[in-house]
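Invent a record, attention on C-alpha cells:
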Amino acid sequence: MKVFLGADHAGFALKEVLEQALEELGHEAVDLGTHDTERVDYPDYGHRVAEAVLAHEGSLGVLVCGSGIGISIAANRHPGVRAALCHDGYSARMSRAHNDANVLCMGARVVGEGLARDVLESFLGGSFEGGRHADRVAKIDR
C-alpha cells in the first residue's frame, strides 16, 4: 500500500521511525517532509499529505506534529479526507472500521516510538465495516 507521510519539526523524528516501520511492513512510504528539525508550519504538511491521499485512490496518510491536533485539523479541511487523531491501537482500529479514516495523525509529544508503531500497525490492519457506518460517513462528506 502507498502511504504518504508528513510532519512538522516537532514530529520529524517520529515520522522517521514510522517511515521505517512502514517499509519493514512492506508498504511504499512516500515522505512529503519536513526533512529536518528546522521550524516549519504544520498546516503545510497536513495539506500536502491530504492532497496526495486524495490524488492516489486507495492510499493512506500519516501525519505527526507535537500534539497531533493542529495537523489533523489542517488535513480535515480537505473534503474526502478523514484524518483521525489516535494515540492507542483501539482508536486507530475503530477509526478505520467505523469512520473509514484515510489519514492517521499522532502527537510526537504524546506517544513514544513503541506505542506509535503499534498505533500505526492497528490503523493499517483495519478496514471499513460499511453497513450502518457508511451512512454516517456519507453525512460527514455532505
